[in-house]
Amino acid sequence: MATEFPLAGSFTTYSTRFVDEAFGFLEYWLSLLKVVTIVIFFFLGIAVNAGGNNMHRYIGAENWTIGDAPFVGGFGGFASIFVTASFAYGGTESIGITWVFGVLSPHT
Predict the structure, then answer these.
(1) Rounded to the nearest 10 degrees, what angle do helices 74-103 and 11-18 cross at?
(2) CA-to-CA distance for 17 and 15, rounded, in angstroms?
(3) Angle at the Cα of 78 (from 77 to 82), degrees rounded to 5?
(4) DSSP 11
(5) Closest C-alpha among 38, 40, 37, 57 to residue 49
(6) What distance separates the 2 farthest-apart alpha carbons in the chain?
(7) CA separation for the pair 86, 34 (Å, rounded)
(8) Other CB atoms closer than 10 Å to residue 16's CB: what's the count?
(9) What is the mean pLDDT of the chain?
(10) What's the pLDDT band for 38 if we cut at 50, 70, 90?
(11) What is the DSSP letter of 62?
(12) d(Cα 53, Cα 34) in Å, to the nearest integer?
């Protein structure tokens, strides 16, 4: 789509031009919500690691020394985490794009 209709912008610009301005506005605020949530979880992780947990003690790198950690199941087990994380992070964008092109596309 970017080669057929070159625009300066991202998915929000395309959705505003081809679907509805309200959808682009909603996509903007939902992506902002995602960024704010990631920042909150970042600081929450630091707080839990520093002692804000149910044991009230510093965790640090303690879990990296248990058994085979961080390579439980070898390097394949370690690499499978990245596959899971990519599906969790990219799932909402894929659903949104599929919905726009499947339901709202005037060219189908």
Answers:
(1) 20
(2) 5
(3) 110
(4) H
(5) 57
(6) 59
(7) 15
(8) 18
(9) 78
(10) very high
(11) G
(12) 24
Has this prediction a pTM greater than 0.70?
A: no
Give the residue, 97 or 56, on which the prediction is more confident.
56
- Cα 69 to Cα 65: distance, rounded to the nearest angstrom: 6
Token look-up 């979880």 returns 41
Cβ atoms within 10 Å, residue 15? 23
Count CA within 13 A, CB hemisphere, residue 46: 5
Nearest C-alpha neighbor of 95 from the set 36, 30, 29: 30
Q: What is the dihedral of CA 39, 43, 48, 50, to 10 degrees?
A: 150
How far separated are the first and last CA of the chain, in Å rounded? 14
SS3 content of the chain, % helix, strand, coil (to 5): 65, 0, 35
